[in-house]
Amino acid sequence: MNKKKVILTTMAIFVIGLIAAAPSDASEKVRLTWTSGGTGGGWFVMAAGMAKIIEEKAPHIQITVVPGGGTTNQPVVGTKKAEMGWALPPFLVAARKGMDPYTEKFEDLMVIGGSFSDNFLHVLAAEDTGVTTIRGMIEYPKPIRVGTGKVGVSGEFTFRKMIEDYYRTNYDEIKKKGGKIFQTGYTEIATNLKDRHIDFACLNIAPPAAIVQEAALGRKLRILPWPEDLMKLMQKNYGFGIGVIKKEMYSGILAEDVPTAVMGTVIMVHKSIEPKVVYEITKIVCEIKDRLPSIHKSMEVFDPATAWKDMPGPLHPGAMQYYKEKGYMK
Fold first, then answer.
1. What are phi and psi of 164, to 5 degrees?
2. CATH number of residue 290's parent domain
3. Domain tally for the chain?
4. pLDDT averaged per 10 residues, the chain (length 330)
5. Confidence at residue 148, expressed as pLDDT on a 0 to 100 scale
6. Taking the mean position of all CA atoms in its chain, how far away is CA 295?
7. Is residue 6 part of a domain?
8. Count helices and strands in the chain by DSSP H and E runs
9. Are 110 and 313 a contacting pair, CB within 8 Å?
10. Exposed/middle/buried for 325, CB within 10 Å: 0-12, 13-18, 19+?
11. Residue 200, in any domain of the structure
12. Helices 210-218 + 186-194 axis angle, to 10
């Protein structure tokens, strides 16, 4: 071998040695997809805001936020079409067990923690309909025009199960009477309410919801109270919580507090994500707690000290490591 070849070979070995010795974490990019909620809804806004802060604190973690829904996110993460997503406890439990609305089990779903915000069912009625109760909406003398959100979002699931289990009717019966079910995104629902294409809506969203406030600017709205036995039925059948939308959340819309069903929000992840990545995300999210309400006011309820408690699925090892290090979890 001539002298030139020896020098080149030596240099190549030296370069390869440097690459092998370099810490992999410094150059490795972690790309994740976060399935959230409908475009324009609270979940989408919250996920986008948190993803931006995570990338700010850990530039090697890049998160793409995509639209999703309360019932569709579980299969998306369970089949690893997205690595993480928002989840509602009743649907995460159902997904892991293969219960309604799911036909298969998604046992690879784990959680980082909760509750990052509370989602309240908003059953909306235009004031000009004269409707003041949910039963009044179901028994409305004119054909019902209602926006439920897209198939698979939690508001649509809730409305469908509510009218079937409690009011003993269904979409087909509504359509037979000339009614229409508008299964569109939240932004379209707000526009349709303002433009009088629909008179009612059912949204599962964290208050104060910008789309509710926006719709109310163009048309006076009521948020309808849930009767106690309806709340208890949904709690028994689907694990919904019972809560109250405070009148302060919607100044100019609510004159009093409104009882309704409620669900907390958790971050779920696929079990295959590296523990060190989940640990880093958990650490960042918990340590920027004070910044979360600036993303969405509903996130004021998040408390890292209790975020690991009473979860609807197993904690991911990376999240568990953080909570134990902080002394939150024994």
1. -75, -50
2. 3.40.190.10
3. 2
4. 44 39 56 92 92 96 95 96 95 91 96 91 97 97 95 88 96 97 92 96 90 91 97 87 92 94 94 97 97 92 93 95 95
5. 94
6. 14
7. no
8. 14, 10
9. yes
10. exposed
11. yes
12. 20
SS3 221: strand
Residues 241 and 140 in one domain: yes
Neighbours of 107 (CB within 10 A): 14
Question: 237, 263, 289: which is the final residue of a domain?
Answer: 263
pLDDT of residue 2: 52
Q: Which domain holds residue 148?
A: 120-263
Give the tokens for residue 285.
Answer: 């999210």
- Determine, yes or no, domain membership for 9: no
Element (H, E) at 235: helix 228-238
Burial class of residue 82, CB neighbours in 10 A (0-12, 13-18, 19+)? buried
Handedness of CA 297, 299, 303, 306 (dihedral sign): positive
132: tokens are: 């003041």
Same domain? 135 vs 93: no
